[in-house]
């Protein structure tokens, strides 16, 4: 062996340990990696974007992120990405706003990976980045994109959404570096899960922030922010900028850099490659238009939006039974989580399909190659419209959108869209191309009660959605043809709805008041008559629709004479009714006295003679009209509200008594002996009754036992293979199982005689049984039967 010199790395000096070359290489690798991260950090802070910046490769990001982007086929950047990434990579807060489909997801996922990588984040450091999404489907989509571009990093990522096992999520939360979550489930873990802490959080991302607030998560979001450290970087992205989003930005962001806000407002919130149209369609014709549209676009991928879950399910179930010729899917919030994910993934992979959905699919979801977005029900505002049509024409692809509006919604919706710089064109649908399906829906509702039930719920849910809309100038429930709408759904009648009944009563009330105006006086011009009718309608009670929406200019332009006129009260309306005119004359005299301007009668009121005999009688009886008094005397009213009668019995002397009247024992029993004797007689009587009942019960039990025995024997004979034919062929005429005596329970004989042509049987039947006592012997010939009958007759004589 040769001694190794001091240059040999495998040998060591006296008293020292040998040096591992792998350890040395690891240290060198860490030094190189630390130097690269420091250089990357400096480059990101000093990076200034150029106008021609378009490639991800030109950004100061790590090689791991570049490889992930290239593997996922992300090469060129969109406008929002090119403007926001240089800012967010420097660690600044960003308030981003860009039209839907412009690539906001990568605009916040790339900074999340890069910031954690540059800060050498590891599993022991805990949660480093938190991404909050409004819906489960969008959270799943963000998580899938994160997995596709972050595969070369060593971070652990998790998905926390409602509808999954809470226990499994708790076990994994402590090991997560990046978390994608919905607000409700995230707050639940923050409050309940032990060990889940966000003290070291580096980045917070709020995607579709306006939708998070619109869905009622404002308090939840405020509670979430209270759990998070203030020394964090926050990225807030949304397709629309609202006042609530601005308030949220002031609470959660520090000196944010606004990206894409001015461009979005000036250029319009929808892409230029999107064709937008709307049609005027009556409410009861919407399903006809929808069916005709689907039948004429069988080779397209269509997304249909409706206002409620019940509508989506009703249309999906009925159209599936009618077989339009294209795959149908439905997505709404009442489905379970796994079903929603399955529908989402299936529609994503299909080329030709129709998806019926609520606004749960309106935000952020990236469905590839959607040709048409059809909005059957009008959106609640312009922002919702923007997000709905944003499911098509994403990135640089083209798409089309069609909006169905009822006549009362046209003016308000079009004006709201113009404020957002959205140019939507009006088109008409050819009546010859529209197919009516009302008869088919009626047949389905008649044949399947479940379809009828779904139709009723769809009817109620749609009208409730219109009733709860904030903008009453656009959504007018009183102007909808609700009865025809119920017929269009295939319902035999219109379901009764409380809020709808109030609206219809209000409408009928205003209509009847307009028709009940007094005729115009002679000698007045037409314009004077119209003025008077308008003043009469404006001076009606506060319950009318005209007063609620009367402009201030009209109110100020009223003449002074009308201002001084007496205000109509509920008593005026009561006495104007036809069936309540009992005190109308008396009340008119009182009103005439009140209208008198004399100072002497300002307080006092002179009494006048009145003929009120009928009225006083009615008032004393407690009724306001003869009609109500007559109704109160009906059998139904008396049975419900009248005094209940009671039954009386009469004794031999003709005295009336209650049915269960207690008798005085002093009158019935004179002494204790009589009481004991009466008790003994009662016991004897009851004992005799029990004996009689016992005899009957024993007879019934005996009869049941015989019946049971007969059935058992019959079953045994069948198991042995003995039948009536076998007995007859063998010559042995045993008792028949077909006839049974009801008196004694014994079997009576049945005579089945063989014909003379029949020969001897090839096999022998079972041996003849010994006849029971009281039964006649079996006979085989007609002569024997006649002889036996004569013997019976002689014995009876």
From TrEMBL:
GO MF: ATP binding; ATP hydrolysis activity; RNA binding; RNA helicase activity
Q: Which species?
A: Lentinus tigrinus ALCF2SS1-6
Kindly state which keywords UniProt assigns to this record, in alphabetical order. Answer: ATP-binding, Helicase, Hydrolase, Nucleotide-binding, Ribosome biogenesis, RNA-binding, rRNA processing
Enzyme Commission (EC) number = 3.6.4.13
Question: What is its subcellular localisation?
Answer: Nucleus, Nucleolus
Kindly give the PROSITE patterns that the UniProt entry links to this protein: DEAD_ATP_HELICASE, HELICASE_ATP_BIND_1, HELICASE_CTER
Residues covered by the Helicase C-terminal domain = 273-445
| Comp. bias intervals (Acidic residues) | 528-548, 753-763
Q: Which Pfam families match?
A: CTE_SPB4 (PF13959), DEAD (PF00270), Helicase_C (PF00271)
Cited InterPro entries: DEAD/DEAH_box_helicase_dom (IPR011545), Helicase_ATP-bd (IPR014001), Helicase_C-like (IPR001650), P-loop_NTPase (IPR027417), RNA-helicase_DEAD-box_CS (IPR000629), SPB4-like_CTE (IPR025313)
Q: What is its main location?
A: nucleus
A Gene Ontology cellular component where this protein is annotated is: nucleolus
Q: Which reaction does it catalyse?
A: ATP + H2O = ADP + phosphate + H(+)
Region (Disordered) location = 1-26, 508-568, 680-797
Give the protein family: Belongs to the DEAD box helicase family.
Q: What class of enzyme is it?
A: hydrolase
What does the domain comment read? The Q motif is unique to and characteristic of the DEAD box family of RNA helicases and controls ATP binding and hydrolysis.
Record-linked PANTHER family: RNA HELICASE
Comp. bias (Basic and acidic residues): 559-568, 680-704
Listed Basic residues bias regions:
705-714
Q: What is this protein called?
A: ATP-dependent RNA helicase
SMART domains the record matches: DEXDc (SM00487), DUF4217 (SM01178), HELICc (SM00490)
Question: What CDD domains does this protein's entry cite?
Answer: DEADc_DDX10, SF2_C_DEAD
Give yes or no: UniProt keyword Ubl conjugation. Answer: no
Where does the record place the Helicase ATP-binding domain?
Answer: 85-259
A Gene Ontology biological process noted in the UniProt record is: rRNA processing
| UniProt keyword annotation of RNA-binding present | yes
